[in-house]
Amino acid sequence: MTKTSPFNRIVRTAVAAGLLSGLVLTGLQSLQVAPIILQAETYEDAQAKAELKPAADAAIAAPQQHADGVQELKAEVAHEHPAAEAHEHVASAVHEHGAAAGHAHGSVGAQAHAGPVEHEHGHEHGGWKPENGAERTFFSALANISMAVAFGLLLSAAMTLRGVSHGWRGALLWGAAGYAVFFLAPSLGLPPEVPGTAAAPLGARQVWWLLTVAATAGGLALLALAPRWPLKLAGVAMLLVPHLVGAPQPLVHASAAPAELAQSFIYATAFANAVFWLALGALSGFFFKKFN
Amino acid sequence: MSIHASAVVDHTSAPATSVAKDKVLPALFASALAVALLYGAAFSPMEALHNAAHDGRHSAGFPCH
């Protein structure tokens, strides 16, 4: 067999390992993760319906201008609730979201009367959506394989930089490192959430997620590979920084689904991702050596 | 460690230019490709992509909504 170019070797390794481990992940996911998501969605839909009914009534009874609606809401909230600022923030955030999703403006007033809105509406997104069942599983598989190939590219790139081919057994450690960097560390601040869970603004969470991944990758690399202690200690500091800063949190912690369901989702995803990363690591090590 | 003992070292001592050509550049290109793939599967705000990858995003612990 002729020697392949380094880039070619990385890509071939990532595609082979990513395809197989992505399928493993999809299998595990449809057995123990997806059922929890579907269950959580029933709670979420029920809560959304319960909130939409009074909203629709209010919209029929008293259609309002946008500006008037917001002004009235602020006045009502300030009048009725002592913690006016927090409620205004939550209510106006929901109002914007609701307006974008095509709700009547009157709905916000009705929701404010019903009490503080405590969760994020995960599935008020419009547009195309895969049907539950085979179609949804197929697109999940596609997404999983894309992510797996991407993670495989990063693992193979790291192996290339190290210049060492361990074979599958030694590469289990690379997989464990990937699990720590891309799942464990971010999950400490932002645990995997079932749909219908209150959360801080998406942009802030994505930034924290990315910074945590970068800091954990850099910190682990220094800790494991740096030749001298001061650098290793700097690595430990890098591991800790994101958690000392803290992940963005919602104003109110709440979920449409029961706490037990949210808890079992964390266990299910922790297990599925552990198996996935060990599989991706081992397969990457195997193919990286094979495609030399 | 036994793992390292059985490891095969690809490049023992290589000049700097060949290190860049054989290691750094391929690793950089591969990482760029990985970022593009991850963005599409896990971070894209596009409605259809979000809905298609929804369960994968939640399962992997990516911030989703």
TrEMBL record, chain A:
It comes from Rugamonas rubra. Keywords: Membrane, Transmembrane, Transmembrane helix. This is Cobalt transporter subunit CbtA. InterPro entries: CbtA_put. The chain crosses the membrane at residues 138-159, 171-188, 208-226, 233-252, 264-288. It holds the Pfam family CbtA.
UniProtKB/TrEMBL annotation, chain B:
InterPro entries: CbtB_put (IPR012667). This is Cobalt transporter subunit CbtB. Pfam families: CbtB. It comes from the Bacteria. The chain crosses the membrane at residues 24-42. Keywords: Membrane, Transmembrane, Transmembrane helix.
